[in-house]
Amino acid sequence: MGEQSFTAMAGPKSEGQIPEIGVGMLGYAFMGKAHTNAYKKIPYMMYPPPAVPKLVGVCGLGEADVSEAAKRYGFTITCTNWRKFLDENGDQFQLFDNCGPNNIHVEPSIVAAQAGKHILCEKPLARTAEEAKSALDAVTKAGVKHMVAFNYRFVPAIRQARYLIESGALGRIYHYRAVYLQEWIMPHYNTPMIWRLDKGVAGSGALGDLGAHIIDLGRFLVGEMKSVSAMTKTFIPERPWGDGRMGKVEVDDAFVAAVEFENGAIGTLEATRFAGGRKNYEVLEINGEKGSIRFNLERMNELEVFWVGEEPKETQGFHNVLVTEGHHPWWSNWWPHGHIIGWEHTFVHEITHLLDCIVNDKSVAPYGADFNDGYRAAVVCDAILESAASKKQVDLKY
Ligand code: SOE
Question: Which of 161, 200, 282, 283 could form an S-S bond across to 180 if both were Cys, CB 3.0 to 4.6 Å?
Answer without folding.
Answer: 282
